[in-house]
Every structure is written in structure tokens, then in C-alpha cells.
Amino acid sequence: MENAGNGNKKLRSWDDLKKLRAGEMAKNGEKRTVLLVGMATCGVAAGARDVSEALAAEIKKQGLKNIDITATGCYGFCYAEPMVEVRVPGKNAVRYGHVDKDLAGEIVRRHLMRGEVLDKYVLTQEVTRP
Amino acid sequence: MSDNYGQVRIALRNCGVIDPEKIGDYIAQGGYDALAKAIFEMTPAEIIDTVKKSGLRGRGGAGFPTGLKWELSGKSEGDEKYVMCNADEGDPGAFMDRSILEGDPHSVLEAMVICGRAIGARQGIIYIRAEYPLAVKRLQKAIGEAEELGLLGDDILGSGFDFGIRLYLGAGAFVCGEETSLMNSVQGGRGEPRIKPPFPAQAGLWKKPTNINNVETYANVCRIILNGWEWFRQFGTEKSPGTKVFALAGKVNNVGLVEVPMGMPLRHIIEVIGGGIQNGRKLKAVQTGGPSGGCIPEEHMDTPVDYESLVALGSIMGSGGMIVLDEDDCMVNIAQFYLKFTAEESCGKCTPCRIGNRRLLEILEKITTGGGAEKDMIDLDELGNIVRDCSLCGLGQSSPNPVLSTLKYFRDEYLVHVNDKRCPSKRCTALLRYFIMPEKCIGCTVCARNCPVSCISGERKKTHVIDQARCIKCNTCYEKCPVNAITKE
Ligand SMILES: Cc1cc2nc3c(=O)[nH]c(=O)nc-3n(C[C@H](O)[C@H](O)[C@H](O)COP(=O)(O)O)c2cc1C
Fold this sequence. Notes:
The complex is a heterodimer of chains A (130) and B (489). Chain A contains four helices and five strands. In chain A, strand 3 (84-87) and strand 4 (93-96) form a beta hairpin. Chain A has helices at 14-29, 41-46, 48-62, 101-114; strands at residues 33-38, 67-72, 84-87, 93-96, 122-126. Chain B is α/β, with parallel strands linked by helices. Helices cover 40% and strands 13% of the residues of chain B. Chains A and B meet through helix 1, helix 2 and strand 2 of A and helix 1, helix 2, helix 5, helix 7 and strand 6 of B. The structure holds flavin mononucleotide (FMN). Residues 58-62, 64, 86, 88-90, 174-175, 177-179, 212-214, 217, 319, 393-395 of chain B line the site of flavin mononucleotide (FMN).
């Protein structure tokens, strides 16, 4: 993006768009753990905001670094909201359903800190996206 | 791209995967490349041709071929044209469009710009119901971010092409989802349908050529442009290519959103993807298409889901509501529920819909409260057909479907209501009678103390009795009795 310096972020060509994409993909390629919280109406109604806050609080309490909590839309499993997907670099993405504040704490302490998958609450596991 | 149990995610590709409030996430998934391709590598005619060949049909209800619609609005003369997105989603029980807008707003924005490029329009309007505040917020954020990056607004990607999108909030009338009422509503008029022709493609918003599509229709477009029409046609059937998103609700275990290739049997959607019926009950019917649709009975569950097959069964694809009914649901009651909705939502402009639906509802109310006769069933059928054939817009043309389809497939249930004054599923409360079983009653007085109209009498430790004349059938005694001594029949 030629104009990036002067506060104007406008893309002036398809190449600009491709460059921006490459930058975004590089960001995703960084070795960071991501917690995706379902924040569509179904998730919010089921208490996703509390879950998100509980995750953040536990991460802070445990002093963990390099973990992002990100909001996302509805994956379709409305019956199982609130949902949290754990993406640890190099591991299968694990999607938990029916998460409450207590389970949020456990996910941080057991899954993130000890690499333990809490089988009982797993909805789906997927081979990690490249 | 394949997901669990045969689902294919095209319209929902990014939902639950990206952060909808970050345009960078969308771009990282290939976002806005379809737009760049459409601007820099394709002529408007080529864009339209690709959409036509893909066989994409409108996901908002009627299933009109999208490419043909674009071609018609493209051909209409005029330097001022509009691209509109119908995000009114008024069907009770439907939430597909909301989920797409909340989970992936850019996919709709990008497709609208492509459409503008194809038909020669520079203004887009999304008509969204005000009851969707989160979707509105995310759309506003998305529009702002796209403008900042020059993907919306003047001189998009330095190409010289200008296109802007704004939101119009609807006030929640069902009829405003009908495209011409929607346009009247945006113009500040009453939400009443217009006579067609002229069609919106010729004279739509402010009498200018207008292309209007549903949210999910647009959500398919970018992938078709990027991957080609042949790719899209590998999914679905010859006449209904691609996928359809359904809002699966009712008595099914896994309530939620599913996206399946067209042509998948209903049974697979309900029993495999939906995980079957709750509490091990039996599937009785599926209601598709909301208030404009009908009820499809269990024996037709192997029907493939596509536009034509559902119409052949007296229902419609509609926007994608799919409500699963089990043996505890009364079909007369269901028909009454939907008719009450449409009778209330009729705008009143044309007589068959305004008065016909009201009369249909009154007959159904008579049947569900014990005043019906067999003649009423003949009247329902006759009047239903008149309303369907004579109404001005799709609301009245489809509102009798829930009644007509249940009359066709569940005739016996109607007969029990009118002849025996009984509701086999025990749903029509007015037809129910509550009794206390003497052999079970322990005389604890709980029912008598909780009865809101004090119609239960009996001494402590002796059998209690319900006064049928005064009972309001509120079900309280049934719920409170500690020894399940109350029956209803
Ligand atoms: C009473 C009534 C309500 C409607 N509600 C909606 C709606 O909420 N959303 C929608 O997309 N289409 C709705 N439609 C269909 C629209 O009139 C129109 O066909 C559709 O927006 C066209 O888009 P499509 O070709 O992409 O399906 C409704 C039609 C009727 C008759």
C-alpha cells in the first residue's frame, strides 16, 4: 500500500489488495493460539459475552501470553452455544459446546496449559486449517 | 469444503470461521478477489453470463433465476439504477440471513458491488429489519471498513467504478419482505405491494430499474465468480444447483443452521444432521417455507430438497425455515398458528387476502374449539383456493398453504376434531378435559391450592374433583400434582 504512510489506507489496484492479503495471511501464520468465541445472536443470547470475559480473566490470572480471543459468527450449532473453538498451532482445532464460566476456566487451565482435550465437551475436532 | 454429514458450506463459508468485524480476516480468506476479478477481468455481460450459467436461483422464496434477473435489470434503460438486498427475513423461525450478516457481512457487500458493476448501478441499499441490531451493527462496521480501504465508494480499487451501499431499517411488517412493498417502504410510503408488471427490474425503487436479491443469494455470488459456474454446478441438482441454508428448529435434537446440497433427502437433514427427534419421539411432519409453506408428512421424507419437489408436495422451499414436528404436535393447531400470523400481517390492500384469511382463521378457530363440522373442511378448501388464486401479492397467494397441505395430508386429524370434538395430540386446549384419577389421588390438596380459578374441590386425604364447567384448562394441576394423578383427554 503506497499510501499507508499518510493515513490514507485506500487500495488503488488489485495488486494493493493482494499485498494486503499477503500481510493478513502472514499474521495468521504467526504461531499464536486463538480462542474463537461464537458471538452471533445465538451465542450472545446463550451467554457468550460472559464466557469470553471468563476466558480473558483466566488467561490473565495464569499469566499466559500470545493468546488471542476472537469473536466469530454462528457455525450452525445454535443448540450448543456458547461455543469456543481452540486453535493451537500445529494441533487439531477443537470446538467445545455448552461452555459456561467454569468450563471456560478449565479450558484455559487444562487445554491451553496442559494440552489436555476435554473430551466430554468436544463438539467437533478438525484437522487444522493450513 | 465438505463438512460433517454431507453439509457443504458455500454461503456459510466464513460463518464461525472469521471475525466478522475485521475486514482483514475476510480478505485473508480470499475476500474481495471476486470483485477485483469482476472489475478488471470481466465485462458486465460476462459477469451476468457466469451467474446465469451457474443456475443460481433466488434463495428468498420463489427461486427465480438470479442471472436472468440481473440480465433484465442490466438491459433496462437508465443511468440511475439500484441494487437492493432483501434482509427483512420475516418468517417465524427463520434466521439464516441474520446469521450470514452477523457472521460474514462482507460476502454480501462484495456481491452487491459485483451486481452493480454487472447491471450498471452505483447505489446499493440493504433493507434490514430493525429487530436485528447486531447484524445492523456489523454491517455498518463492514461498510465503514470497506469504504476506508476503497472497496466501496468512489473509484473502487482505482478502477474508476463508483458504488456505495447504505442501510434502510425496516419496522418489522412481514409484507415488507415482499419486494414491491419493500420498495414502497423505502420511499416512505405504506408497505403495500404493487401490481406486477412492471417488475422491479424495469421500474423498482423510485420507478428506476432495480435488482433485488435475498441475502443468501448474494452470499453465493462471490464464489461463483471466483471458482466459475462449472464449479458451482457440481453441487445440487440440474434444476436447483448449489446449496441451501436451512434454519432447523422444532422437535429436532440439533437445532441450528445447516447448509446442504440441493437434492438431499429431507430425512437425511432431520435424522442425520439434525440428530433425530427429541426425547425419542416419532417424526410426524416437517413444515418448510414458513407461513407461505406447507407441512410435509413423514411418508414423504425421502423427497429430495429442491424447489420443484417441495412445490409438488404442496409446500415451498421458501427462505429456508424448517420446523420439525413430532407426534405431540396437532396439525390443525399448526395451520391455525400460521394463519393467525398471516391474517395479522395482511396489509389489507386486496380483499381476498384481507377478508379471506380472516374467514379462514375463524373457521379454524371454530374447529379447534369444538364448534366445527365436516362442512367447514369443504369451506376451508374452497376459500383457501380462492385466496390463493385471487390475492395481489405472494402473501395471500401462499398464506393458505399451511391449511391446504394439512387438509390434504392430515384429513383424519381434522375429522377427529370436527366429529369427535377431540384433539388426538392434546394440543387444542379448548377440546381437552382434565380429570383426577381416584385410584391415584392422595388428597394432598396441592392441585386445589394452586388452581387459579379454584375449581378443584375435595377434603384433605380424600379424592379431589375438578369442576368441568369452570376449568380453564391452564394445565397447572397437571404440572403440580406430586403423584401424577391428573389426566387429560
Ligand atoms: C409476504 C412475502 C414476504 C417475503 N419476505 C421475504 C424476506 O423476508 N426475505 C427475502 O429475501 N424475500 C422475501 N420475499 C420474497 C421477495 O419478494 C423477493 O422474491 C426476493 O427478495 C427476491 O430475491 P431472490 O430472487 O434472491 O430470492 C417475500 C415475499 C412475500 C410475498
